[in-house]
């Protein structure tokens, strides 16, 4: 029986990666060029209320006569930046504490890991809801709540990487050569620990967008009339038979989450030696 031809090129250069990049690039352009991509203002009443999709309004209008397509495009200006901010802050805090924990060990390791265990013992959504409810509605407070929820994930991942790398021969050689502890950590350990953490951060961008939309949906994130995807879906839930009100922001969340997941999965295949 003839063998099937093997695909040419690296496995990570695949169709899902191309789709993911196109989706993410589209929403990045929407974030930057939303006023040029539509002729309506997201806050203005431009037609009859709850008008179905048409050539003038691709996704119809909502209960206040605002263009849903326009509000969906402008929603990217809130959802994408907050995702990037939350992931960057969580990654910075978590990676720093995880590196200190894994490198120093002892009392510092026990203290940091117990704090991580306490935070991870709560369901992420419930913890984010509790923090956001305590701080009050608003995207800024929702971002703080999500950072509190997300940093332990990176701390645990970075600690595991540091514990593995610090036992390698080149680190032992640096110790024998008399290198200082900060230099050993910064020059010989951390450069080899970032790959899994960055791959995880890429995939978490979509999850943060989903969590931010969930907080806005229940009234703990963006407040009306802000065109944010979660709050738009909440408005659409009150108009069950006007399906287009929630369709636009729902499709936006679905595509951006899948896009980031496709990119993260492709990066994992590229850097994981077991996939070669």
From TrEMBL:
Membrane spanning stretches: 12-34, 80-105, 125-151, 189-220, 240-264
Family: Belongs to the binding-protein-dependent transport system permease family.
The keyword Membrane belongs to this UniProt entry's keyword annotation: yes
Domain ABC transmembrane type-1: 76-264
Superkingdom of origin: Bacteria
Membrane topology value: Multi-pass membrane protein
Main localization (coarse): membrane
Protein name: ABC transporter permease
Subcellular location: Cell membrane
One Pfam family matching this protein: BPD_transp_1
Keyword entries, A-Z: Cell membrane, Membrane, Peptide transport, Protein transport, Transmembrane, Transmembrane helix, Transport
SUPFAM superfamilies registered for this protein in UniProt: MetI-like
């Amino acid at each position: 029986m003839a063998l099937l031809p093997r695909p040419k090129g690296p496995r990570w250069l695949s169709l899902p990666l191309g789709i993911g990049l196109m989706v993410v690039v589209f929403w990045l352009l929407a974030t930057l060029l939303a006023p040029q991509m539509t002729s309506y203002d997201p806050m203005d009443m431009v037609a009859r209320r709850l008008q179905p999709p048409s050539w003038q309004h691709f996704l119809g209008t909502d209960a206040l006569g605002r263009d849903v397509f326009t509000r969906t495009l402008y929603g990217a200006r809130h959802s994408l930046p907050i995702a990037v901010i939350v992931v960057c802050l969580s990654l910075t805090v978590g990676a720093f504490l995880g590196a200190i924990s894994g490198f120093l060990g002892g009392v510092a390791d026990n203290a940091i890991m117990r704090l991580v265990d306490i935070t991870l013992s709560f369901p992420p959504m419930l913890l984010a809801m509790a923090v956001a409810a305590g701080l009050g509605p608003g995207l800024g407070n929702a971002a703080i709540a999500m950072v509190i929820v997300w940093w332990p994930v990176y701390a645990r991942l970075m600690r595991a990487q540091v514990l593995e790398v610090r036992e390698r021969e080149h680190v032992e050689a640096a110790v024998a050569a008399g290198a200082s502890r900060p230099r050993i950590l910064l020059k010989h350990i951390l450069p080899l620990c970032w790959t899994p953490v960055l791959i995880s951060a890429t995939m978490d961008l979509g999850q943060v967008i989903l969590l931010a939309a969930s907080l806005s949906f229940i009234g703990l994130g963006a407040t009306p009339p802000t065109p944010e995807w979660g709050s738009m879906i909440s408005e659409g839930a009150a108009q069950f038979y006007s399906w287009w009100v929630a369709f636009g922001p729902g499709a936006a969340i679905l595509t951006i989450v899948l896009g980031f997941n496709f990119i993260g999965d492709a990066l994992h295949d590229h850097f994981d030696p077991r996939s070669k």
